[in-house]
Amino acid sequence: MSSASLDLRPEHLTPHDLVTYSRCPHEMELTHARRRSERLGTPQMACTPLDVVPERHSPLFTPSTVHLRVNEGRLDLDPHDVLVYRDEGEDDLPFLFPPERTRIDDSLLRHGMNLIDDELGLSGRPDFIVRHSDGSLMPIEYKATHLFVGFHEAHGRVFDTVQAIAECRLIEAMTGHRPAMGVVLYGDAAGRGEREGWVEVPYTDLEAHWIRAAVTQIRADRTRPPVPAERNCAGCEPNRDGLCRYAAARFESSHR
Ligand code: SF4
């Protein structure tokens, strides 16, 4: 029996976990094993079998990006929009709303800054949540890079989509109301906003079904295979800490 199986709590997932799994399941598993070790106070093994065969792609069936809208320029906020949530743990967020248009909604702070979805076992913290004049809510995730970082890579917009869908689901679980869309805002901090922009990700029945299926698939996967490729391993934290035994295969995999 692996030591991981002794921990009987249902595996907790975050929007970031979904993004990581869609890139490399083993990266997510190594991160979770480290968290389990910290929580239990003893080293915990990753569930990935030692004889696993590295994959070329994550097994996650990714959501459609067909209906995304990519916009260049300053985020288009309505004058009647107000800010109802801001992640206070993030220091580098831009100033989107003046104080008179900031009305923090305490019902979103029932678990501190965390939004929790008990049904799907998800939790997370969007950077902002905006309330429109019709009462609907919209999460905004901020990235300091510019709109076209990773744009030409097949997975670039998939990551935006996964993150925005997960944040919409968290709001739906907390409030009982479904956001129509989530936004990923690119501030282009290095370029002083010259190439800023935002991506609108719709949240319909299709996306709501997708996240249910994705969470089920991730929890059922006891292999969590590595996907060694330069695009994945270069920014992988477990790799930086010397925890991944498959990272060396990335050059071979990238050029296969
Ligand atoms: S180093 Fe590469 S293969 Fe290993 S966990 Fe990280 S992304 Fe996956």
The profile of the biggest β sheet is: 6 strands, mixed
Mean pLDDT across residues: 88
The overall strand count is: 9
Strand order of the largest sheet: 1-9-8-7-6-2
Poorly predicted runs: 1-5
Proportion of beta-strand residues: 15-25%
| Count of individual domains | 2
Ligand inventory reads: iron/sulfur cluster
How large is the count of helical segments? 7
Which term fits the overall shape? globular
Beginning-to-end CA distance, first to last residue = 35 Å
Tell me about this structure.
Helices cover 29% and strands 16% of the residues. It has 256 residues and is an alpha+beta fold. It folds into two domains: 90 residues, no CATH class; 144 residues, no CATH class. The protein has a six-stranded mixed sheet with strand order 1-9-8-7-6-2, with helices on one face. The protein has a two-stranded antiparallel sheet with strand order 4-5. Helix 1 crosses helix 2 and helix 1 runs antiparallel to helix 3. The relative contact order is 0.20. Bound molecules: iron/sulfur cluster. Iron/sulfur cluster binds next to helix 2, helix 5 and helix 6.
